[in-house]
Amino acid sequence: MPKTVSQQITFKNTTPKDVYSLYMNAKKHAQVTGGPAVITSKVGSDYSAHGGYIQGKNLALVKDKLIVQTWRAQGWDKSDTDSILTLSLEPKGENVILHVVHANLPTKHADHIDKGWHDHYWKPMKQFLAGKPIARPKM
User: Fold this and answer.
1) What is the pLDDT of residues 71-97, one digit of tens each?
2) Which helix or strand (DSSP H or E) is residue 111 part of?
3) How far apart (Å, rounded) are the C-alpha atoms in residues 8 and 90?
4) What percent of the chain has pLDDT over 90?
């Protein structure tokens, strides 16, 4: 039975435009995650992150507001269908609330992916936005 991971992350003193750009701009994405990324802000285009470890397709994009993608990691079984990642950005005063719903995850990978979002994305993005050096988790 596939699982869904839901998260809500607050980015302080920033804008939806800055958070959206960190994820959707390949150069910034790679800078934050520490791995090569290929991504464009075109609906229907393929993307990859972490040097191809993660791959998918942009399904829906609303600049500075919404990102919906198929998402698949290397090592998943061939029988596992692609998961669906939805990132929605909510401005809240001087902060941005990021609502994350990652649906249709293979059960055996869900906990690892849940933690991975924090370790490889949200914490480094917060450090980057605060102008601090990015502390990377040990692999």
Assistant:
1) 999 999 999 999 999 999 999 999 999
2) helix 107-117
3) 10
4) 96
